[in-house]
Each structure stands twice: as structure tokens, then as C-alpha cells.
Amino acid sequence: MKLSKEIKTALIVILGILTFIWGFDFLKGSTLFKQEKVIYAVYDEVEGLVNGAKVSINGLSIGKITQIDFLPNTTKILVTLSIRDNLNFTNKSTAMLYETGLIGGKAIAILPDFSTPNPIQSGDTLRATSKPGLTELVNQQIAPLQQKITSTLTSVDSLFAGVSNVLNKDSQNNLKITLEQLAVTAENANKATKAIARLMADNENTLANSFKNIENTSKNLSVMTDSLSEVDVKRIIKEYGAIATNMNALLMALERGEGTAGKLLKNDTLYQNLNYTVEELGQLINDLKENPKRYVHFSLFGKKKESYKTAYDKK
Known about the structure:
By secondary structure, the protein is α/β, with parallel strands linked by helices.
């Protein structure tokens, strides 16, 4: 059965509409065929957060932001999150808004809670919190310094404005130069603070690892100190003292020639006996080489044995 051109055209149009709907949902961060849970979080301010931003747990992406809008009749912001259906953390978990980088925008990290056996369901609302970004932390530290510098410059400007009526033109010119230099110094200080902010941003991971290493080192030192405190140092010293006393007594006994080992060290009789035995053994071996028939002989008819003569007898 052949399809007519009208049917083919209708199928192509329907396929195109379905493709458009799928592409539109994909761009919004949702999907038609994958089961997902839809949960919510409410924030006071979400600057930098956009639709499609990542939702993660410990850095692993588990979903996306699908909608950001005002909570009805309030100025609070309702954020809709679409996450994987197979996640089992509870609705007591926290949705933390954090800064992904200096220019990377913001995202949401789930701090999961497993205190109850009831997993989160679609429509649940998580507790919302925000983590200050690196730029915000730097600005918090720099803002007081900038205010102090501004206040100082204002006070100095007012002071010199009152004194300018008393000073001559040369003094006024000198004061103007000083103020210009002070302005340049303030500008340099502002540049220095910006450079410090950039340096901290570029080395955020390095600084974090350094602080972590310092923390691990302090823990190891604490464990080592606790271990040393548990050692019975007095008992060990006492035992080593007793060992040293016994060794000293043993060495003195050896020096006096007491016991078997002392006699071996002090009496040379054993040495003389060994020396004599070796000498006799040498004579026996030499005689065995010179007169082997005296020790080993074989005869069918018998043979008269030779009398034994030592090397001294031959001489």
C-alpha cells in the first residue's frame, strides 16, 4: 500500500512539530522521556542564577534549574529544580546557592539529609541557603578599608581647605602636590586590593589545600603528643637503668675471670692446649702424606708392619 503525498506531508509536519517541542523542552532543561522529580527552593536574592543552571551533589550533576520567578504576593524568588527520580534524600536537605567562579555564574548544590527513611517527593520544598562567593568575601574585607581611606581623604581635604586661607601661594602649591600624591597613593592602594583579589581567586584551590595540610599536620602533632603522654617514661628509664647495672656487673665478673666465660678470657691454658692440639694434628697429617702404607695397606700374603716413627724420630 502506497502512501499518498498528503499523508506523507502530514507525517513530516507532525514529526517536525514533535521535534520542535522536544527541542524547546531540551533548551528549558527538561526532557519528555526521562522521569524526574520537581522540587522547589525559595531565596531572597538569586543574582547570577539562570534557567538551565546545574544542580549537583558533591559536584555531580543531578538536574537543572527549570524556572525562576517571584513567589506569589512576595518579593522572594521561587526556584524550580528538576532532579533525577532515583535520589532518596529527604525534604530536610538544603539547597545551597553558590558561585561557580568569577565569571561562571551561579548554581545550586544539594546538601543531602538521610535522617528519615522517607525520600523526597515532587512538590517538596527544600531549605534554602547561600554561600558567599570569593568576590563577595574580598569586597567585605576591602569595603571597611575603602571607607576609612575615603573618610581620611575627606577630613584631610576639609582641613586643608580651612588652612588654605592662612598659607601663602607656595605653601598652597606644595599642599596641592601633596594631595595629588595622596590621591595617587589611594589609587595605587585600590589597584593593590584588586590585584590581591585576583591573586586569591587564581589560587583559591592552592590556599584551600595549604590550610587543609596545616590542619592535617596539627592533627598528626596532636596524635603524636597524646601517644607520647601515654608512654611510661619513668618505667622505661628504670628498666634501662637495671639493664645497664646488670651489664656492668657482667663485664666486671668477666674482667675478674669469674665463670666459664671469664676463665676463657683470663686463663691462657685453653689457648695453649688448642695450640698443642693443632701442632699434633699437623704432624699426623704430614706423616699420613709421607707414610700412607703405615695407615692403609692391603696384601694377599700379608706384610710385616712397619714400626711407627714420628717426624722427630726421622730427624
